[in-house]
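User: Please predict the structure of the protein below. I'd like the answer in structure-token form so I can feed it into my own downstream comparison script.

Assistant: Understood. Taking the following sequence of 147 residues as input:
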Amino acid sequence: MLTNLIKNFMSRGEARTFITYSLEHGTKDIEEQPDQIDSSEGTAKVLGSIVSSAKVFHVGKNYDKRLKLISCEMSDGTSKPDMPDGTLVFSIFYLSKHSVTDEVGEEKINSEIGSTIALVAEDYEKLVLGDSSEELTYRLFAFWEAE
């Protein structure tokens, strides 16, 4: 089951912050303290609120279940991270400034920077990530389980 793609879910600046923070520090802080992230430069304060907003306004609403975050992982190309056991739903935050088209079976996902989408775990094997020859295609994968 494919849920709605939300275009411009976050701003280009927020996406840049996500990429910068994730590449420098990984995503462990995001999964462990989604509402309390802070760095010495103050550049990563928005990360937890974006992930939390995706849960409240997008993932949980469309799936009609209470969810909690298992983990987040950054991808910079066409390879998908391993899906953790117990995943019910996963979401993808599109963080690249160029558009990219992913596919789930026959369904095409045309994303742009700041878009997010959530899919049920059963669709993970059908997901084929598109890429651009222009530059790396950054995506943040968030994996959710029942609360």
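That's the full token string. The chain has one domain: 12-146.
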